[in-house]
Design brief:
Radius of gyration of chain B: 13 Å
Order of helices and strands of chain A: EEEEEEEEEEE
Low-confidence stretches of chain A: none
Order of helices and strands of chain B: EEEEEEEEEEE
Number of helices of chain A: 0
Largest sheet of chain B: 6 strands, mixed
Distance between the termini of chain A: 36 Å
Largest interface: A-B, 25 and 24 residues
Oligomer: heterodimer
Low-confidence stretches of chain B: none
Number of strands of chain B: 11
Radius of gyration of chain A: 13 Å
Structural class of chain A: mainly beta
Mean pLDDT of chain A: 92
Structural class of chain B: mainly beta
Helix content of chain A: under 10%
Mean pLDDT of chain B: 93
Distance between the termini of chain B: 41 Å
Number of strands of chain A: 11
Largest sheet of chain A: 7 strands, mixed
Strand content of chain A: over 45%
């Protein structure tokens, strides 16, 4: 299994541009998450999904959108990039089963800079 | 609002030393607590997950304890090695899907 994969690894955006961060997992996990990590800080939850067609907001959802059309993919969309969105973005997933005791598996991250 | 604090922010030790990393949280109503390792430029690797009903978990040279009533967890690393150098993150999960993370402890093990 490849686990959780994210593309791209790095990206520089200009203010006002848009982009989609891709996340794919091949472990048949129902639950998927997007986090952001600012320098020297812990991770904060942006959005999560408990299965295909179901998404919900996390702690810091403003400026982002998500969709979940398949079990494997959970893309994160930035519509109008702002410097405050400069961060490292992590995607994670966890297996189905008894809530909430399952550990989350993380992708390698996407480092995004907005100038 | 749940807040997670990790002390110290950075720690440097000689190889072979036993060490303890600390994590505290403000709301004791948690379902579980996880310890992660983060290497520079990499994602997070889950080390140990302690359910709220458990007191400790062990994996190899790592031992994590949980005292829910006092809002504390410790990660004990025995016989530290240079390969243990990384940032260690603690995260707690309450009644939602949200994990609340601390800022981490950056560990350096010197040969």
């Amino acid at each position: 299994n490849a686990g959780v994969t994210q593309t791209p690894k790095f990206r520089i955006l200009k203010i006002g541009q848009s982009m989609t961060l891709q996340c794919t997992q091949d472990m048949n996990h129902n639950y998927m998450y997007w986090y952001r990590q600012d320098p020297g800080m812990g991770l904060k939850l942006i959005y999560y999904s408990v299965g295909a067609g179901i998404t919900d907001k996390g702690e810091v959802p403003n400026g982002y959108n998500v969709s979940r059309s398949t079990t494997e993919d959970f893309p994160l969309r930035l519509e109008l990039a702002a410097p405050s969105q400069t961060s490292v973005y992590f995607c994670a997933s966890r297996p189905p089963g008894r809530y909430p005791y399952n550990e989350q598996f993380f992708g390698p991250g996407t480092r995004l800079t907005v100038l | 609002k749940q807040e997670v604090t990790q002390i110290p922010a950075a720690l440097s030790v000689p190889e072979g030393e036993n060490l303890v990393l600390n994590c505290s949280f403000t709301d004791s109503a948690i379902y579980n607590l996880q310890w992660f390792r983060q290497d520079p430029g990499k994602g997070l690797t889950s080390l140990l997950l302690i359910q709220s009903s458990q007191r400790e978990q062990t994996s190899g040279r790592l031992n994590a304890s949980l005292d829910k009533s006092s809002g504390r967890s410790t990660l004990y690393i025995a016989a530290s090695q240079p390969g243990d150098s990384a940032t260690y993150l603690c995260a707690v999960q309450g009644g939602s899907e949200k994990l609340v993370f601390g800022k981490g402890t950056k560990l350096t093990v010197n040969p």
